[in-house]
Amino acid sequence: MRAIQMVDLKAQYHKIKAEVDAAVLGVLESCAFINGPHVGRFAQALAQYQDAKHVIPCANGTDALQIAMMALGLEPGDEVITPSFTYIATTEVIALLRLTPVFVDVDPKTFCIDPAAIEKAITPKTKAIVPVHLYGQAADMEAIMDIARRHNLFVIEDNAQAIGCDIYYADGSVRKTGSIGTVGTTSFFPSKNLGGYGDGGAMVTNDDAVADTLRMVANHGQKVRYYHDIVGCNSRLDTIQAAILEIKLAHLNDYIDARRRVADYYDQAFAGLPGVTTPFRSEKSRHVFHQYTLILEGVDRNGLHDYLATLNIPSMIYYPVPAHRQQMFAAFGSSEQHLPVTDWLTERVISLPIHTEMDDEQLQHITSSVRNYLTK
Ligand SMILES: *Cc1c(COP(=O)(O)O)cnc(C)c1O
């Protein structure tokens, strides 16, 4: 059996190697390393994929969040509502910009921010909501956009884990996560569903003025070279990464299908297992399974992790400490906050290997091992 990994980047690369190698060598030959033609072409292709007006590439997904918050003119002391149950980047940039993170709880089914909790957390200082489409599952954007409209708030969708996820609206229309809020941000970190071979990120928006400002902030606050109107930063998508991402974007829908096939296999294998909740399948969106995450009740979760490791099956706890309990935020006193669903999930989630290159032999080994542990 091929070794099981959380993500198998090498096997995926080998399937597109000829095309990728030629593209990378082409960039080397052209020496157009910074803002070469691939960058604009990829941005256009991604905008088309997202069905959005503007895509502004940048250096990574964390920068994308930071640039979005800077471009929307958020100022020190402004409150930004965010889930605590997320990767640290989402909440870290809020504090970095001296904004105030207001951590709220998540929905135990979707793992995403709970709209009712957002509503309760709004104060006169609230300026923005940052929903995270966690593990590839969409947050409830219909409810979130409704709250944002009523309270005049910006929405920055952290779409680092859910690129390609469709949301189905009641009127029959379909929209991609990341193209619904004021700005959507994403990451091309190698293990993400659309991953480059290094760092990368992008911002998505349908607002022309916001797009202009995002571009300026990412480029030292300038529109005209050497004339700097606002304080910005330097955040670019590398041309080599853009060339690779251009190729991989054409495969993204197939990659999502491959991930969903793995999720279906797991769902069937774990159906009815006592103590196990498989990922929620919403009728309102199409999960893209960046992670396949189980909730275990009355089961020694860390014991399962260790048992699988002895069988050479990796598994991960995303995330072992929620943001509101991180030392980083001690000054906000957030660890005193009562986020029962977040704390409950933190103790019970476990993510199994899921990627585009898994075969049935590997899946059989993983599922029978999990079943063995749970029924022993
Ligand atoms: C990966 C990730 C980021 C940050 O992306 P980088 O490219 O690593 O900076 C932000 N938010 C979430 C939810 C992520 O998973």
Describe how the helices and strands are arranged:
Blueprint (H helix, E strand, L loop, with lengths): L8 H22 L6 H14 L3 E5 L2 H11 L7 E5 L4 H9 L3 E5 L10 H7 L4 E4 L11 H11 L2 E5 L7 E3 L5 E3 L6 E5 L13 E5 L2 H11 L3 E3 L2 E2 L10 H11 L2 H19 L5 E2 L7 E2 L5 E5 L4 H10 L29 H9 E4 L7 H16 L1
Parallel strand pairs: 2-3, 2-4, 4-5, 5-8
Antiparallel strand pairs: 1-9, 6-7, 6-13, 8-9, 10-11, 12-14, 14-15
Helix pairs in contact: 1-8, 2-8, 3-4, 3-7, 9-12
The chain binds pyridoxal-5'-phosphate.
Explain how this protein is built.
Belongs to the DegT/DnrJ/EryC1 family. It comes from Cnuella takakiae. The modification N6-(pyridoxal phosphate)lysine is found at residue 192. The chain is α/β, with parallel strands linked by helices. The protein folds into 2 domains: 9-104 and 111-249, Type I PLP-dependent aspartate aminotransferase-like (Major domain) (Aspartate Aminotransferase, domain 2), CATH 3.40.640; 252-375, Aspartate Aminotransferase, domain 1 (Alpha-Beta Complex), CATH 3.90.1150.10. Helix content is 40%, strand content 15%. It contains 12 helices and 15 strands. The strands form 4 sheets. The protein has a 7-stranded mixed sheet, with helices on both faces. Strands 7-6-13 form a 3-stranded antiparallel sheet, with no helix packed on it. Helix 4 (88-96) links the parallel strand 2 (79-83) and strand 3. Helix 2 runs parallel beside helix 8. The longest helix has 22 residues, at 9-30. The chain starts with 8 loop residues before the first helix and ends with a helix. The mean pLDDT is 97. Residues 60-62, 86-87, 89-90, 132, 158, 160-161, 187, 189, 199, 201 line the site of pyridoxal-5'-phosphate (PLP).
